[in-house]
Amino acid sequence: MSEVLKLEALVRTFRNEGDDLHILRGADLVLNAGEIVALVAPSGAGKSTLLHLAGLLERPDDGVVRIGGIDAGKLSDSERTRLRRDSIGFVYQAHHLLAEFTGLENVVLPQLIAGSPRAKAEARGRDLLRAFGLGPRETHLPGKLSGGERQRVAIARAMANAPKLLLADEPTGNLDVATADIVFDELLRMVRGEGVAALIATHNPDLAARLDRVVMLRDGKLVAG
Ligand SMILES: Nc1ncnc2c1ncn2[C@@H]1O[C@H](COP(=O)(O)OP(=O)(O)OP(=O)(O)O)[C@@H](O)[C@H]1O
């Protein structure tokens, strides 16, 4: 099976008021194509730190991040940006949609930035929003959508450039329990349908149990959950 993400002995230490916080102390992980893995850890253990490193938003103090076999540490900043844009989608706890653009435009823009022609980007955007039942709302501004609808648009945006890897940090953490449940299942359906590998951080053990595998961040290392 082809390897989408490989983390090798990742180390990340923060300096905080004179103390060293050893957040990652040799974290290893392999994610294969189509695999959906839950990342579970107590608050402050380093889930977001790990996702930022895996998503090439930050560099580790030591260790290697490979995306599709490519050692990201050997790339220039612009090459990392291109690899991130072409291969990785992000979903955060907050939707981070652009308020002055419609739902559809929010899904179209990353595709235009990646060089896709507008007609193709709009067709893909409409397909993704329709899959979430948002077709009739595609021209609404984010401020006119419910919290669950906004998060669905944010997921559609993350999938817009057909990434190989989706990284999600508490993707339904801001929603009420009932909506979170539904949106989480919709996210899984879309990720499975598109054959994308995903690493999804969640505090919720019920949600984690729906995924293919659980890894836990313990003492700065990843262990099977
Ligand atoms: N840039 C930074 N400088 C100093 N300390 C940091 C920095 N970024 C993160 N930390 C610290 O590292 C620890 C891990 O943070 P991180 O956000 O990765 O945790 P988390 O597991 O995602 O937490 P939560 O579930 O609450 O979001 C925290 O104690 C945090 O305060």
UniProtKB/TrEMBL annotation:
<dbReference type="InterPro" id="IPR017911">
    <property type="entry name" value="MacB-like_ATP-bd"/>
</dbReference>
<keyword id="KW-0067">ATP-binding</keyword>
<dbReference type="InterPro" id="IPR003439">
    <property type="entry name" value="ABC_transporter-like_ATP-bd"/>
</dbReference>
<keyword id="KW-0813">Transport</keyword>
<dbReference type="InterPro" id="IPR015854">
    <property type="entry name" value="ABC_transpr_LolD-like"/>
</dbReference>
<dbReference type="Pfam" id="PF00005">
    <property type="entry name" value="ABC_tran"/>
</dbReference>
<keyword id="KW-0547">Nucleotide-binding</keyword>
<dbReference type="InterPro" id="IPR027417">
    <property type="entry name" value="P-loop_NTPase"/>
</dbReference>
<dbReference type="InterPro" id="IPR003593">
    <property type="entry name" value="AAA+_ATPase"/>
</dbReference>
<dbReference type="GO" id="GO:0005524">
    <property type="term" value="F:ATP binding"/>
</dbReference>
<protein>
    <submittedName>
        <fullName>ABC transporter ATP-binding protein</fullName>
    </submittedName>
</protein>
<feature type="domain" description="ABC transporter">
    <location>
        <begin position="5"/>
        <end position="225"/>
    </location>
</feature>
<comment type="similarity">
    <text>Belongs to the ABC transporter superfamily.</text>
</comment>
<dbReference type="InterPro" id="IPR017871">
    <property type="entry name" value="ABC_transporter-like_CS"/>
</dbReference>
